[in-house]
Write a structure and sequence with these properties.
- By secondary structure, the chain is α+β, with helices and mostly antiparallel strands.
- Helix content is 24%, strand content 28%.
- The protein contains four helices and eleven strands, in the order ββββββββαβαβαβα.
- Strands 1, 2, 3, 4, 5, 9 and 11 form a seven-stranded antiparallel beta sheet that branches. Strands 6-10 form a two-stranded antiparallel sheet. A two-stranded antiparallel ribbon has the order 7-8.
- A hairpin with a 2-residue loop joins β2 and β3.
- The longest helix has 20 residues.
- 28% of the residues are buried.
Length: 186
Amino acid sequence: MRHGTRQLCGKRARHGALAPATGLVLRRHVAGFYSAVDTFLYGWTESYGAAGHAVLIGAYGGCLRCGIGGTGVPHFQACHWPEGSATIEEPACGNHFTPYGAVELGFVNDLISETALRALLEESTLSHHRIWLAPIQRIKDSGGAITEAMTQLAERENLGGQIWERDWCQSDCPSCSFAREYRSVA
């Protein structure tokens, strides 16, 4: 069994709310034939590297736009910064950024890589969302807090340093609406 990948370009949301998303098209190549449906994988980090996301878009369930707003900000976020902006501005040049480095990115890269491997090795046709959340103290030290949606997903308060999974649900986004209309005509 061979597998192929193709990288897609992501977009940066305004004001550093979303790191550049990376998209991969994952194709299963078995016995000389590629799978009929491509599986798409997108990954990004939240501010301060406090959380990482991997979204696998399969043949069933929502598309990427179902969970991303019109400005590129995901509907589901694991962390928020109640004391103001999550970005820092450099004096004199007006550059906005959120500080994080290789340590925080290592966990997010692992999450995305593991999601890609699982998609290639297992038959997964349902869209789903995996979230890595930094240890709670790291989030608090950066002035952040866990969102109510993340607390409900975990069903408890102490939830840092773990990976959580949830469905990537289909909504009435314009892309899915167009696809449904196209399928009904075809």
